[in-house]
Amino acid sequence: MPGLARKLLICAAVDGLIIQPLATKGQTRTPNPVKVKYGDAAVTSISRDQTASSDSTPPNLSFEAFGIIGLFTVARLSYLVSITGRQQVAQIRGHPIYVVTDVALTPCTSQNEAETAISHTVSKLQRASAEKIAEEASDTASETDAPPAATGAEDIDDPGAQSDRDVSQPKLPGEQRGIAQDVFKKSGSYGSFAQRWFSNKGWMANRRQSLGLSGVGAATAVERDDDEEDRSKKEDDDRELSRIVVEENADTPPGPTTGESLTPKLLRMAHIWFGASKSFFFSYDVDLTRSIANRTAATTHVPLHRVADPMFFWNQNLLKPFTNLGDESLLLPIMQGFVGQRSFVVDRHPPQVESQLDSVEMHDMAVSPPGSPPQERASIDLRPSEKKYVITIVSRRSVKRAGLRYLRRGIDDEGFTANSVETEQILSTVSWEPSSKIYSFVQVRGSIPLFFTQSPYSLKPIPVLKHSPEANFNAFSKHFNRMGESYGSMQLVNLVERHGVEAIVGNEYQKNAEKYNQERPEGAEPLAFEWFDFHSACRGMKFENVSQLLDTLGNKIEKTGSTVELDGQVEQKQNGVLRTNCMDCLDRTNVCQSSFGKFMLDLQLKEEGFDMSAQVDQMNSWFNTLWADNGDAISKQYASTAAMKGDYTRTRKRDYRGMVNDLGLSLTRFYNGMVNDHFSQAAIDFFLGNVTSLVFEEFEANMMTKDPGVSMSKMRELAIETSQKIAIENAQEDFIGGWTLLSPHASNTVKAGSPFEEVVFLLTDVALYLCRFDWNLDKVSSFERVELSHVTGITVGTYITSTISPAQADEKKNVGIVVTYEPGKTDVKRTNTRSLSSLPGEQERKSGSGGILSSITGNKPAAEEKQVARKKIALKALYSHTAISEAQGVRRLTEIEQVNVIATEIERLVLANQPPPPDTGDDRKELLSREDIISLEEARKSTGFLDQLGHTIKKLVWA
């Protein structure tokens, strides 16, 4: 993108943090730097005449970065995330595509912290540069033709620019190392884990360095100018620098806030997620967020952030401070997913003699000199009948319903599904000349578009359907209406089991697809639904049976076609899309999508005049390893491990070693689902702007996260409406209001430590109703009706049920109401017996009935009533300010305001229903009293030592 600086100079000046855009070689610098203001993290411009600039900054107080990811504020501290390491993984239209390999997190709240962090960053960059020089010298002496890194990409470098390549532990294309082999060789993710864990100093040393304020990995290569190479030898390593940065609090307000103890973990998460994970990609010139078919008119001179698709623009929220400033030179969109590239050669007249089998293999990019320009590679020993192509895969993960495996399942209220990924397979010539056709084939994957959950505490968890059939179909329709507008016709490929636990959601998926076709809007394309039971068809490791699916869908894929661009104009546009899913949309999905991609590639090359079935190379390792790398990348981002069944994707063979490797991956996923994912999910939602930093306070309370994609306010409104229809049978009653509150699961108790659940509380002019609601099925499971004339007292006050976390012990936030009453013959308690006796959702969905509400108490003789002791209904206010509500701009009454409104309304109506005692006028006993329901001191006594110890241990592990 013309005008966007390739580098930035970040330094700490006398009055603030300076971000100075630097132009590429031969260009002038951008005149207006940007200042991140201390204290409140406000971003303002600095005029040209200010003296603070990069030229006057000491070398140890400035470093060069390749772009700004953004700025975030948590626990009263602001951090700038800048790219300090990058690696070129592909080139598109002659422009380099980079993956982020390292980032620096620079605190912006105090000058002292900023200077210390920047100095630490400089030290780390210089050390990494020195180590890279030494490593390259060693590699040159031992190997003259090193294979490329196993990123699945062809490293076609920008001429004149140095490649930032991680050359540690190279792996040949198609090679697959087992977990045990990685551990013993200390390579790969498992080997790295073992090396750190069993090292006397490695684990804690890396833990200190990964506190996130500026570190880079030792093996990370960073682009630098000649003067940086000279400076890299001047400074020694300061091991205490990271500790000083973390512990520096001189300019910050005193007193930690709730959740502030999690800030170091958040910084580590940011450093790993944005940098070490190598899952974020960017380009200065190419819009990675849009496929060829989705690109609008020529946008050569339009800044990338203006044309980027918000669906795949991952740092849009973090860039808001700079967007508000209006300095477009700092707005660099990044995309999460995968970008990989391979070159290959095909022959119009392939040789038939076995001695010439190397005619194709010799041209594979795996043996081409890494980093050589595409012009050189295109001319290596090609016969007149041969032609060299480049295949590129770009997978774009959606920011909608983004997150991790068991915490983001199914669909949300707006019709967005979890693990939604658009994968574009591009076929082009090596030089991307406009006179040659460019082919683009797009597929999508995404979770089954229904409300469902699965527990992470099982290796084979049972899916649980949630919410009513109406709510599911409403979200289902939104999803496919939007997809139809974006892609046209849709072929749904469902890979879950027809029998067993997966069939629970598979059957509902098919039913909703059939209903959608019957009720689809005018002009909308019908859904083509294909259910292929992958596990049944491929039982016994016979993954080649996926060809059966291709036999079924081949004609459909051919009719869908691909997008073709020639001379910069789209000549033909893909007229539909395949949407593939399994349960996770990872392993089975990637195997099938790679098969669909190969099928389309053969069709495209046939149009170019090449018969792939006649080629000498039938292994197609260049294709298989590229798709396997794509599957691994998407799997790591959703399930924290590489994809299972990857051995088949790479080699088209399946054996026991692949099964053993998959077992290790399953156990790793199981551990991450239980321990790591909750905090990581909170951080992801925070970075995307779905929640505020209050999410970490909520996480500290129960080590869990909430789903911002499911609107609790809408669910609560629906619950109140449903409860009103079911519980209030007498049409003569005047409905006053309804609220959702917390109440002990056991009736007639206020005890701390007992399980609490969210209930619906209704109030009419003559009675109050306590409705226990099944939030999974949107049904009333039971309700209790109490005549207002039977109410004898109302207590409002502090209601603390646990002191495990600071939020739970806050006396201002934890308040409630206790209504005391004398049971009478008109009081009723009823339960929905069908809901309680059936499996979750099964009979309800089959019958479509609301269940049978049967009376289990009430209607007692008057003589018996007088002997019944008084009973209590305990209600506790929900927290008014949550991370989700604040992010959505929802403003609610405070907790004490909530209970005051409800209590005074109950008191008014009770007095209206109770006539004054005879001969005493209007003198009545005071109903409303204000005193502690459960005080902080009582709650502390009730919170057992084992409860506190359990939470402490869980926090040590989870946080």
From TrEMBL:
Signal peptide from the UniProt entry: 1-16
BP terms from Gene Ontology: phosphatidylinositol dephosphorylation
Family matches, as InterPro entries: hSac2 (IPR034753), Inositol_phosphatase (IPR022158), SAC_dom (IPR002013)
Record carries keyword Signal: yes
Segments of this protein annotated with the region Disordered: 129-177, 216-242, 828-859
Residue ranges occupied by any SAC domain in the UniProt entry: 277-640
GO molecular function, one term: phosphatidylinositol-4-phosphate phosphatase activity
Top-level taxonomic group: Eukaryota
Sequence ranges of Basic and acidic residues compositional bias: 230-242
GO (cellular component) term, any one: endoplasmic reticulum
Database matches in PROSITE patterns: HSAC2 (PS51791), SAC (PS50275)
Keywords, in A-Z order: Signal
Occurrences of domain HSac2 (ranges): 710-874
PANTHER family associated with the record: PHOSPHATIDYLINOSITIDE PHOSPHATASE SAC1, SACI DOMAIN PROTEIN (AFU_ORTHOLOGUE AFUA_1G15890)
Name by which UniProt lists this protein: SAC domain-containing protein
Organism: Xylaria flabelliformis
